[in-house]
User: What shape does this take?
Amino acid sequence: MIDPFGREVSYLRVSVTDRCDFRCVYCMSEDMTFLPKDEVLSLEELDRLCSAFVAKGVRKIRLTGGEPLVRRNIMWLFRRLGRHLDSGAMDELTVTTNGTQLHRYAQELKAIGVKRINVSLDTLDPEVFQRLTRWGRIDKVLDGLAAAKRAGLEVKINAVALKDVNEHEFDRMLTWCGEEGFDLTLIETMPLGDIGGDRVEQYLPLSVVRGDLEKRWTLEDLDYQTGGPARYTRVAETGKRLGFITPMTHNFCESCNRVRLTCRGILYMCLGQDDDADLRRALRANDEGVLSAAIDEAIGRKPKGHDFVISRRDNRPAVSRHMSVTGG
Ligand code: SAM
Ligand code: SF4
Assistant: This one.
C-alpha cells in the first residue's frame, strides 16, 4: 500500500478496546464514558480486519488501547494473528500495555511469537504512580515486568515526560532501565482529547530534557529505526537505548508508515487529524473485494502530516478523541 506521498504503509496499530484499568491524567479524564459493548468489533471481526491489512502488505501489527490486555479473551486474537508470523506474511506482532496483566500473559505472548513489548511506566515512585494513574499500584506493573523478563520478552519502557511530575526522575529511570536491561523512550504529551486539566501545565519539551541529560550521560545518536517516530540514542554508560518521541518539537511525519484502527473499525490515517474511514461497514459487507477497496480508498486519503500545537492562546485538544481511542 503506497499513499499519495509515496510512503509505504506497512504498520497497523489496533486499539482493541477503549477501556482501561487506569485513568492516567494525561490520557483520560476521571469519569470517562466508554463505548457501549455492542459498538465494539468482536475479536473475530478484528482478526478478519487485521488479516485483510496483512494480505495488502502490512508487516507489523501492534495491539494497543485503552489497555489491550484487559479485553476479555484477548489472547485468542494474539494467537490468531500469530499465524501470520508463522507463515512469514508478517514480521512482527507486538503490544503496548500498562503492564498490569503481564504476570498472566507474558509467557503466552512469547510462545505466540511476540518478541518485544512496550510497557508504559512514567515514574518509579509508588505515590507519584498512584497519582498519575489516579489509582494504580506500581507493584503489579513491576511484577508484570519481572514476568516479561523471565519469559524472555524484550522490554521498552515508555514514559511520558511531565513537567514537575517526573522530570527529576529521568536519571533514576535511566539507571534502573540499564540494570533491568530495558530500553527507555520518553514521550512528549500530545493534545488528544479532553482530560479535565490543563495541558500547558504538563508539557515538557524533550529538547530541554535531552540537553539536561547530556550533562551527565553520553548519548550517542543511532540510526536504529523501529518504524516509529522515535529518535534513538545509545546510553554509553548502560549500553541500552534511549529514545525521544517529539511530536511537538520535531516533525516526524515524512517517514510515517502507519495507520491506526479503532475497536469500532474506524481507520485513522493520521494520529493528529480527524479524517477517518469506516471499515466496519465494509467488513460487514462480507465481501473481500469491498473491504480491500475501502482500505485502498482510505490509504489514498492519508494526509501529509499533523499540526499539533499546545499554546496558551488555544488550549483545546488538537483532535477531540482520546489517545485511548486511537491507541498510542
Ligand atoms: N494502556 C496502554 C499503555 O498505557 O501503554 C496502551 C495505550 S496508551 C494510550 C499508549 C501510550 O500512549 C502510553 O505510553 C501512554 O503513555 C501514551 N499516551 C497517552 N496519552 C498521551 C498523550 N496525551 N500524549 C502522549 N502520550 C500519551
Ligand atoms: Fe490507560 Fe494507557 Fe491511557 Fe494510562 S495511558 S489511561 S494505562 S490507556
In short: The CA atoms of residues 178 and 239 lie 7 Å apart. The longest strand covers residues 154-160. The chain has a mean pLDDT of 91. The chain has one domain: 11-326.
